[in-house]
Design goal:
There is one protein chain. This protein is an alpha/beta fold. The protein has three domains: 2-168, no CATH class; 198-237, no CATH class; 258-378, Glutaredoxin (3-Layer(aba) Sandwich). The chain is built from twelve helices and eight strands. The strands form two sheets. It has a five-stranded mixed beta sheet with strand order 6-5-4-7-8, with helices on both faces. The protein has a three-stranded antiparallel beta sheet with strand order 2-1-3, with no helix packed on it. Helix 1 (2-24) runs antiparallel to helix 3, helix 2 (27-40) packs across helix 3 and helix 4 runs antiparallel to helix 5. The chain is flat and about 80 Å long. The two termini are 30 Å apart. The model has no long low-confidence stretch (mean pLDDT 87).
């Protein structure tokens, strides 16, 4: 039983760590998911709390997972896991029946599950949860009381710091279909061997004041006494949906310029600002110099927004902006980049660079060969992440040495 209890503890802990981490490095994604649920349940008055609740939930998940793996405060941790799992198992059962939001969001964008898949996942995890709970008093603590609370404090502090860093910059890992290196046209393609949507179609006809429903492939089409009234199409089997299926850009005249942007052999800068009234104005103004650079070099520069034309004109006048604003779906813009505004660089439809408004490059640092510039930026960000990971390793190693020496 001891071995089973240890396996259950480790399995549950790793699941919680993974779930908390992939959402914690993308706090905006978790925030949007909370807002989706609030709107689905007519609780939009709670939207202002979405970010705080998202960070809190992700932190609790990660810390519980770390406590399970390290065997910290097992009595309290076991109760926390039980309450967490019972609550979310019941909630996901309700969501599975009502389906207000198709993607549960339990693993962020790293792993997409339906509500029923999430419920069965939680049902499976209830087994190790119950094992951990009933075995909670028999786990032998690896550290003293001070050491256990110290680990929990350090883990909580570091995780919140990581979430804040990713909020002020961009997620450390981008799981979305618009990540650097993504070929957008390829992501919009449906392979030939993929299944299509299957519908059951019926035709509603009327004769002598009486309406009758017939199968679409078997109705009295040659009887002129029947008058067509309606056609019903019911989806009975969902087909393949490409990762990118709602990417569309319309210019200020209402013309679709998506193809012009995606198949441009040169470079295109897209300044993504899903709602201008919530955009960082300094970022919008700084982008003007990049737009001027694009004019000099013959590159495209568009600001993509879901704001109405009146808001666009007011902002252009307020900030003195002269670059072109285009319209794109708000959810698409939020998916493209977790920044408002955020800068995206495309080359022949491929994403080769992304910047948060806090990291937006100065026009003076741009070079005509933007591919080289984007690659250098990517390497610099990779080095930065490595330095952060080394710092975290040093913190944990230092605490282990301290705890073993003084506890």
């Amino acid at each position: 039983m001891k071995i089973i209890a240890i396996i259950a503890r480790i399995l549950l802990g790793l699941t919680f760590i993974f779930s908390g981490f992939v959402k914690g490095i993308d706090p905006w994604g978790s925030t949007y998911k909370f807002i989706d649920y609030f709107n689905a349940f007519n609780m939009s008055w709670m939207d202002s709390l979405a970010f705080t609740l998202a960070v809190l939930q992700n932190t609790v998940e990660f810390v519980i997972g770390a406590a399970l793996v390290l065997g910290l405060r097992m009595k309290e941790t076991a109760w926390g896991v039980l309450v967490f799992m019972v609550f979310y198992t019941i909630l996901t059962l309700v969501l599975a029946f009502t389906n207000p939001v198709t993607d549960c969001g339990c693993f962020g964008d790293a792993l997409i599950l339906t509500n029923w898949e999430t419920f069965f996942k939680n049902l499976f995890l209830m087994l190790p949860t119950l094992i951990v709970f009933f075995y909670r008093k028999k786990y032998v603590p690896a550290y003293g009381k001070f050491g256990e609370w110290g680990w929990i404090t350090v883990t909580t502090t570091v995780f919140i710091a990581i979430s804040i860093h990713c909020y002020r910059h961009l997620p450390w890992i981008d799981f979305r279909p618009y990540h650097v290196g993504a070929d957008i046209p390829q992501g919009m393609t449906i392979p030939d061997d993929m299944p299509s949507d299957v519908y059951h179609s019926t035709v509603i006809l009327e004769k002598d004041g009486e309406r009758k429903e017939f199968p679409a492939n078997n109705y009295p089409w040659d009887d002129s006494t029947w008058v067509w009234k309606d056609t019903k199409n019911v989806l009975i089997q969902k087909g393949y949906t490409p990762p990118i299926h709602d990417f569309k850009i319309e210019n200020e005249h209402g013309d679709d310029i998506t193809g012009d942007v995606l198949f441009d052999q040169s470079y295109s800068f897209l300044l993504v600002a899903h709602r201008l009234n919530k955009s960082d104005k300094h970022g919008l103004k700084k982008a003007k110099s990049i737009a001027d650079f694009c004019d000099e070099q013959g590159y495209r520069f568009y600001c993509l927004t879901a704001s109405i034309k009146t808001d666009v004109e007011l902002l252009k006048k307020e900030l003195g902006l002269d670059y072109e604003f285009c319209t794109t779906d708000e959810i698409t813009l939020k998916t493209i980049i977790r920044s408002n505004p955020g800068l995206v660089l495309l080359h022949n439809g491929t994403v080769i660079g992304k910047w948060h408004f806090n990291d937006m490059p100065d026009a003076e640092t741009l070079i005509p060969n933007l591919l080289s510039f984007a690659l250098e930026h990517r390497e610099a960000k990779a080095d930065e992440r490595l330095n952060y990971l080394l710092l975290l390793a040093l913190i944990f190693f230092g605490y282990v040495v301290f705890q073993n020496r003084y506890i």
